[in-house]
Give the backbone structure.
Amino acid sequence: MSVLIFVDHTDGHIKKASHEALSYGAKIAEQTGDVTEAIVLGTVNEDLASLGEHGVKKVHHVQHDNLKQFDSQVYAKVIAEAAEKTGAKTIIFSNNSSGKSIAPRVAVRLKAGLVAAASALPETSNGFNVRKNVFSGKAFANVAINSDIKVISLNVNAFTILHGEGKAEVVAFNANVDAPKIKTIDTTKTSGKVTLTEADVVVSAGRGLKGPENWKMVEELAEHLGAALACSRPVADAHWRPHNEHVGQTGIAIAPNLYIAIGISGAIQHLAGVNRSKVIVVINKDSEAPFFKAADYGIVGDAFEIVPKLNDAVKKLKGIA
Ligand SMILES: Cc1cc2nc3c(=O)[nH]c(=O)nc-3n(C[C@H](O)[C@H](O)[C@H](O)COP(=O)(O)OP(=O)(O)OC[C@H]3O[C@@H](n4cnc5c(N)ncnc54)[C@H](O)[C@@H]3O)c2cc1C
């Protein structure tokens, strides 16, 4: 029996979230006495054997022209087939956009119980109970999976990446790969920027900045910190910033190690997308702003005075000034 982890990648690079899922899956295998295996679909520009450092013993690699374009239905069928043929008992995904669309489809195909957005290792001493976030991260639920086969999608940044020794065996897996039903006609890529969902540090700003012309200092701070940029919804709605930076309940949900919120009030819908951040720093001129209740560090003051000072301090620290 095995724990099978889906390895997600973009442009041939394995996502950080997948390294977390691999480490998580290896720990589950340790608990249940199973073998840790991984499945990779399509071409990856990294040494797959090195996934052994997370505890993976075998990597099943599926290569096929039909996998060049991501299609959750096609991917789900291949992963379900691999799970059946390799005797996988637990299948792990990241709860990122790919995982969210594939995991439920795999669960249906395998008649498996699914826990989405898991936040901790399962409790296996009495059944198989998985903790997950509910109510936009305001509470936890412990969910029991009673089916023989179990599917879990792990929240991004919820599990520390484990590094050990060892190389995985990489084997080709021949699957029946359908042609995608959806054809991508055009793709527009942002380049040279830190991907928001993968970023360790995110610098975010809201309506307190008054207008798009004032984002230069925010961009500068993000650049110095190697951070991704984000914004509140009204800012994206007003076209001050692009919608792919909008975080929150109706935007992207993120969980960086550091989230810096500048001139954002901290409405519940905004917090829903950022409250899993490890450390939250809030800069707001209103000491009563609700965001301070969720903050680890707060600066009460005018962003137009504080952010330039922060930029100077970071530059000094990095020896740029
Ligand atoms: C169904 C629904 C879904 C929603 N989804 C989202 C979502 O996904 N994401 C999201 O962000 N919002 C969402 N919203 C909107 C949300 O309710 C808030 O209206 C929004 O988050 C407020 O954005 P803001 O904090 O940038 O602006 P404001 O509420 O206007 O707050 C601006 C803040 O800046 C501070 N400020 C002003 N000037 C300065 C200065 N010079 N220096 C420092 N601070 C200053 C003010 O004190 C204030 O706290 C949603 C709303 C609904 C109804």
Remarks:
- The longest strand covers residues 35-41.
- Helices lie at 16-32, 72-86, 97-110, 216-225, 233-237, 268-274, 291-294, 303-317.
